[in-house]
């Protein structure tokens, strides 16, 4: 086995399991949307979406199995996005 | 003669490209949230005009296609080219389903006169009009990514056929998969924001 093929992702079973979790979370988010929680609806919907996004990024996109450099790169990109969104609201929220 | 190959470089390059995609959609998500903050009531009314059943079906379709994309990479890594090709076929098939559902959703909206600049929505409150402008822009750009993703998978399928993408060097398939998962990732946020936050 050479250097390239050593970095194997997970097997079929793990992916099917994650798919099951994503389906369950989709059902949860649709169900919760029908319950009136006021502003909390937005918070819950985005939290569930973020859990789903993490499962996709770490397992489907193999980030969990990548080296530290790539993990830090992805972290940097999302931190920049958070700053971008944060600074926008710092402006618009106080008008 | 040995071909120069840089597996990690190829994958890192793909991720760098994906970051630019995250920023592209990120800008639109910022625009969405700022407008939502300004017109919460109008967004609430406009959002109820979308079909939650179709949106949920599309979420299930896209997540399942993402599963097949991930399975295709594993199959090729394990050396099963035939199975990898079948999984790629299933991914593309579900991508088609997604677009067909989207087509019916859009044409129905067009039919009842809901599209930017239509006479029917000219009297609507600005916030409600903005909701649909953003809806068509973001789901449209996302749909374009679905079409590109299908083309990329078609190309990778050919690469497997001509044995340029092999169980020993599968980065082309892995990168196509990364792109596809990003398309899925964007939909995971588009779905609750447009269909569920009412």
From TrEMBL, chain A:
Predominant cellular place of this UniProt entry's protein: membrane
TM annotation in the entry: 12-33, 39-60, 72-90
Record's keyword terms, sorted: Cell membrane, Membrane, Transmembrane, Transmembrane helix
Position of the signal peptide: none
Compartments, as annotated in UniProt: Cell membrane
InterPro entries cross-referenced by the UniProt entry: Caa3_sub_IV (IPR011743), Cyt_c_oxidase_su4_prok (IPR005171)
A Pfam family assignment: COX4_pro
Official protein name in the record: Cytochrome-c oxidase
TrEMBL record, chain B:
Keywords assigned by UniProt, alphabetized: Membrane, Transmembrane, Transmembrane helix
Keyword Transmembrane helix: yes
Cross-referenced InterPro entries: Cyt_c/ubiquinol_Oxase_su3 (IPR024791), Cyt_c_oxidase-like_su3 (IPR000298), Cyt_c_oxidase_su3-like_sf (IPR035973), Cyt_c_oxidase_su3_a-hlx (IPR013833)
Domain (Heme-copper oxidase subunit III family profile): residue spans on this chain: 1-198
Pfam families (UniProt xref): COX3
TM regions (residue ranges): 12-36, 56-76, 83-104, 134-157, 178-197
Localization terms from the record: Cell membrane; Membrane
Chief location bin: membrane
Membrane topology: Multi-pass membrane protein
Domain of life of the source: Bacteria
Coiled-coil regions listed: none
Family: Belongs to the cytochrome c oxidase subunit 3 family.
Name by which UniProt lists this protein: Cytochrome oxidase subunit III
Organism the protein comes from: Pseudodesulfovibrio portus
């Amino acid at each position: 086995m050479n250097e390239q093929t050593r970095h194997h992702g997970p097997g079929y079973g793990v992916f099917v399991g994650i798919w099951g979790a994503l389906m369950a979370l989709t059902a949860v988010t649709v169900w919760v949307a029908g319950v009136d929680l006021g502003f909390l609806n937005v918070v819950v919907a985005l939290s569930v979406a973020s859990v789903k996004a993490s499962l996709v990024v770490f397992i489907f996109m193999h980030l969990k199995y990548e080296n530290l450099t790539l993990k830090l790169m992805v972290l940097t990109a999302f931190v920049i996005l958070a700053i971008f969104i944060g600074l926008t609201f710092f402006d618009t929220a106080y008008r | 003669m040995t071909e120069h190959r840089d597996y990690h470089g190829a994958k890192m390059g793909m991720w760098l490209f994906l970051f630019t995609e995250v920023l592209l959609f990120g800008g639109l998500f910022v625009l969405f949230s700022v407008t939502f903050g300004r017109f919460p009531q109008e967004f609430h009314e406009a959002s109820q005009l979308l079909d939650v059943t179709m949106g949920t079906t599309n979420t299930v379709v896209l997540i399942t296609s993402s599963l097949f994309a991930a399975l295709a990479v594993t199959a090729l890594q394990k050396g099963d080219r035939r199975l990898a090709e079948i999984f790629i076929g299933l991914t593309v098939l579900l991508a088609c389903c997604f677009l067909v559902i989207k087509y019916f959703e859009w044409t129905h909206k067009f039919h009842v006169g809901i599209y930017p600049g239509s006479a029917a929505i000219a009297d609507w409150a600005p916030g409600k009009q903005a909701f649909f402008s953003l809806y068509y822009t973001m789901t449209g750009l996302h749909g374009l990514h679905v079409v590109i993703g299908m083309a990329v998978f078609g190309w990778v399928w050919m690469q497997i056929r001509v044995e340029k993408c092999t169980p020993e060097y599968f980065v082309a398939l892995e990168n196509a998969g990364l792109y596809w998962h990003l398309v899925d990732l964007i939909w995971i946020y588009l779905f609750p924001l447009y269909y569920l936050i009412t």
